Amino acid sequence: MSKIVSLGETLVEVMADTKGYGFLEPMTFTGPFPSGAPTIFISQAARMGGDTAYVSAVGDDDFGKVNLTRLRDDGVDVSAIAIDPILPTGHAFVRYRPDGNRDFCYNITYSASGTTRMTPEAEKVFAGADHLHVVGNSMFTDEIRAMTAKAAGDIKARGGTVSFDPNLRKEMLAQPGLQAAIEKVLSFTDLFLPSGDEVFLGVDTSDAEEAIAHHLAAGMTAVVHKRGTEGATFYDGTLMLNQPPFPAEEVDPTGAGDCFGGAFVALWKAGEDPAECLRLAAAAGALAVMKRGPMSGAEHADTVRAFADAHAVDI
Question: What is the rounded CA–CA span in Å between residue 159 and residue 244?
Fold first, then answer.
């Protein structure tokens, strides 16, 4: 079985119980929920049966323990998650606006996650991996960018693969060095998992099909274009598969794309047919939005498959 590794931020989310704008008055919250885009990804990949490991850092506090407990329970190798004795685990306070957008008050860069380094434990995990999953918004320090490039290059050199989910917030794009880091990751990418306009990263076109053709011609094996309520489409140069979204009563959409990615990558690396990878990934994404908390809806493979079978959609 392929060893899937990811790296990046680990944090907790604390969610406002009422909708509104910002945090300028007292309010009630629910949490902490374990979170972080690559943390959610690796949790879902493990729950789908993947052999997984995660490289990150948490504080020596209860928020760190919340995440470590969750990942251990999922079966993720946490040996390369460092425990910083001084800095706290990252956190994000989240409040939904009436229109569905969100306001954040968070600390990730200056939390324990910002100290993520290439430790001996991380080197060991990367050396045993044959797949690396990269999340764009996790490349928030020079050290993580350097680790990502080295791990990707080493894994590719020994015949492994790389997947890339940009998941980039607009505020990040102006960070010095980020654009170059993204271009580097794109050059290593075998499986590209963009959402919406992220499909245009690294290309000079405004046509999605042209952008996908460019990525495939540049050496990618497959592109899975996530299109929200319009579903997702798989391309590999000879095959195009459309997957409509599964019906779901949305409670909290945070983490849906990461659950989609975790399910897809785990199945793809296990040799599943692309149509089945896409179907079950869409089901995992639908299940993710039906519970409050970014990882609360990440389900095990049997539950994901049963949901997909019970809620078949026309393709």
Answer: 33
Report the C-alpha gap between 92 and 175 in whole angstroms.
20
| Closest C-alpha among 56, 115, 68, 59 to residue 88 | 59
Q: How many CB atoms lie within 10 A of CB 169?
A: 9
- The secondary structure element, H or E, covering residue 287 is helix 274-288
- Count of domains for the chain: 1
0.90 exceeded by pTM:
yes
Asked if the structure places residue 135 within a domain, the reply is: yes
Q: Is 26 within a domain?
A: no
Say if 266 falls within a structural domain. yes
22 φ, ψ to 5°?
75, -160
CB 107 within 8 A of CB 90: yes
Distance of CA 203 to the CA centre of its chain: 22
Strands 161-165 and 191-192: parallel
Asked whether residue 309 is domain-assigned, the answer is no
| pLDDT tens digits for range 114-151 | 999 999 999 999 999 999 999 998 988 999 999 999 99
CATH number of the domain that 277 lies in? 3.40.1190.20
Residues 6 or more apart whose CB falls under 8 angstroms from that of 168 comprise 136, 137, 182, 198
Confidence at 167, pLDDT banded by 50, 70, 90:
confident
- Whether 48 and 74 have beta carbons less than 8 Å apart is answered as no
Q: Domain range holding 196?
A: 3-7+36-83+116-297
Per DSSP, 195 falls in state: B
Element (H, E) at 269: helix 256-269
- Residues 185/149, Cβ–Cβ less than 8 Å: yes
> Which tens digit of pLDDT belongs to each residue from 257-313?
999 999 999 999 999 999 999 999 999 999 999 999 999 999 999 999 999 999 877
3-state SS class at 130: coil
Nearest-CA neighbor of 46 among 9, 4, 81, 10? 4
Q: How far apart are CA 41 and CA 257, in angstroms?
A: 9
